[in-house]
Design a protein that fits this description.
With 402 residues, the chain is an alpha/beta fold. It has 2 domains: 126 residues, Medium-chain alcohol dehydrogenases, catalytic domain (Quinone Oxidoreductase, Chain A, domain 1, Alpha-Beta Complex), CATH 3.90.180.10; 164 residues, NAD(P)-binding Rossmann-like Domain (Rossmann fold, 3-Layer(aba) Sandwich), CATH 3.40.50.720. The protein is 25% helix and 22% strand. Strands 3, 4, 5, 8, 9, 16 and 17 form a 7-stranded mixed sheet that branches. It has a 6-stranded parallel sheet with strand order 12-11-10-13-14-15, with helices on both faces. Strand 11, helix 6 and strand 12 form a beta-alpha-beta unit. Helix 4 packs across helix 5. It is globular and about 65 Å long. The protein starts with 9 loop residues before the first strand and ends with a strand. The structure holds nicotinamide-adenine-dinucleotide (NAD) and zinc ion. Nicotinamide-adenine-dinucleotide binds next to helix 1, helix 4, helix 5 and helix 8. Its cofactor is Zn(2+). Belongs to the zinc-containing alcohol dehydrogenase family. Class-IV subfamily. Homodimer. One of its GO terms (molecular function) is S-(hydroxymethyl)glutathione dehydrogenase [NAD(P)+] activity.
Length: 402
């Protein structure tokens, strides 16, 4: 199937961010045809992730404007550039903000999803192959965002950042798997890896954190402690298997101390999904260490391992930090055998692994509907930003014009 727009410039509607923090403007843009190793996608549904909001506000991030934001979406391939053999027009796809070239040492390693060529780059606003944008208005280029720019009816993406999925999967639901939900789920299942019966603290109960909680539930964790500054999030979080709630504002000591008290020394795993530096530090310091002074810890450890006392707590950072943030903790926290990790996209390789996450939804092992709290037509995209800024939405689906 070859579309009659293949090889031609397409004029369509996009939501353009002209200035930091100013409402997006929906206007006509020109979308150039895909070049070698690129794919042009007709976006049907997109949704808003907090990462879009950070780069739109550009408070702690490099301002790159005018820009077309958006990275969580589902669509259909319209045309492909030279050398693209994996995808064809009509394929149902999810674009992803980080890629998989399948050739570099990271792509060949089972342990990493940080492709040398296509890993996330938030400051680049152009295509990798020629350093140019595929979007323009009256000949003036408009920058891309994380290689996806899904707040447009059509977008051009590197083939390595496109996952081909089951065409039977409803794109208005599985679009949320192209970033937030896969990220949270994978951060727990692939990186934190809690064992059955363990305790897990989740910092930030937005869609990413609640997907991390869902991962903890699937792994059989017995205590899932949700931490958020917004207590309104606690009611919703019950649907995601969160068993206990902690609002740091309710304590006059650091929240990591409160969690250590609740859990006899710390949780087995924590996953931070806030983007706040202080929450990152708390998430690290609230995991269990080895404590030679407390005999109960010794007993627990000896029982569990039968060997030398070792710490086992693992913390995983997921939130996107500001560009000048620096993580500070006393080195003793590491010497005491806590482990600190971080992940983009939950360690999933976009092309190889994402189709099977979509199948988890198709097989009813993973529910997506409960993450989708709002829906707006493309013409009202700015409302999605308001809902997120007010802490009202988990995911707001933005429906593109038919
Ligand atoms: P969200 O705004 O819906 O949720 C964030 C939650 O964190 C909110 O409920 C907020 O009240 C809470 N929070 C903020 N500061 C806090 C603090 N100090 N302590 C406790 N709770 C706090 O956002 P989201 O879309 O769920 O995204 C969460 C984070 O994950 C963002 O930083 C986003 O950029 C990041 N992210 C990372 C990846 C990745 O691959 N690493 C992918 C997607 C999103
Ligand atoms: Zn995202």
């Amino acid at each position: 199937m070859v579309s009659n727009t293949a090889g031609k410039v397409i004029r369509c509607k996009a939501a353009v961010a002209w200035e930091a923090g100013k409402p997006l403007v929906i206007q006509e843009v020109e979308v150039a045809p895909p070049q070698a190793d690129e794919v042009r996608i007709k976006i049907l549904f997109t949704s808003l992730c907090h990462t879009d909001v950070y780069f739109w506000e550009a408070k702690g991030q490099t301002p790159v404007f005018p820009r077309i934001l958006g990275h969580e979406a589902g669509g259909i391939v319209e045309s492909v550039g030279e050398g693209v053999t994996d995808l064809k027009p009509g394929d149902h796809v999810l674009p992803v903000f980080t890629g998989e070239c399948k050739e570099c040492q990271h792509c060949k390693s089972e342990e990493s999803n940080m492709c040398d060529l296509l890993r996330i780059n938030t400051d680049r606003g152009v295509m990798i192959s020629d350093g140019k944008s595929r979007f323009s208005i009256n000949g003036k280029p408009i920058y891309h965002f994380v290689g996806t720019s899904t707040f447009s009816e059509y977008t051009v993406v590197h083939v390595g950042c496109v996952a081909k999925i089951n065409p039977a999967a409803p794109l208005d639901k599985v679009c949320v798997l192209s970033c937030g939900i896969s990220t949270g789920l994978g951060a727990t299942l692939n990186v934190a890896k809690p064992t059955k019966g363990s305790s897990v603290a989740i910092f930030g109960l937005g869609a990413v954190g609640l997907a991390a909680a869902e991962g903890a539930r699937l792994a059989g964790a017995s205590r899932i402690i949700g931490v958020d500054l917004n207590s309104k999030r606690f009611t919703e979080a019950k649907k995601f298997g969160v068993t206990e709630f902690v609002n740091p504002k309710d304590y006059d000591k650091p929240v990591q101390e409160a969690i250590a008290e609740m859990t006899n020394g710390g949780v087995d795993r924590s996953v931070e999904c806030t983007g706040s530096l202080s929450a990152m530090i708390s998430a690290f310091e609230c995991v269990h260490d080895v404590n030679f002074l407390n005999p109960t810890y010794h007993r627990t450890l000896l029982l569990r391992r039968g060997l030398l006392p070792v710490g086992w707590g693992v913390a995983v950072l997921v939130g996107v930090p500001n560009k000048d943030d620096a993580f500070k903790t006393h080195p003793i926290n590491l010497l005491n055998e806590r482990t600190l990790k971080g992940t983009f996209f939950g360690n999933y390789k976009p092309r190889s692994d994402l189709p099977s996450v979509v199948e988890m939804y198709m097989n009813k092992e993973l529910e997506l509907e409960k993450f989708i709290t709002h829906e707006v037509p493309f013409s009202e995209i700015n409302k999605a930003f308001e809902y997120m800024l007010k802490g009202e939405s988990l995911r707001c689906i933005i429906r593109m014009p038919a």
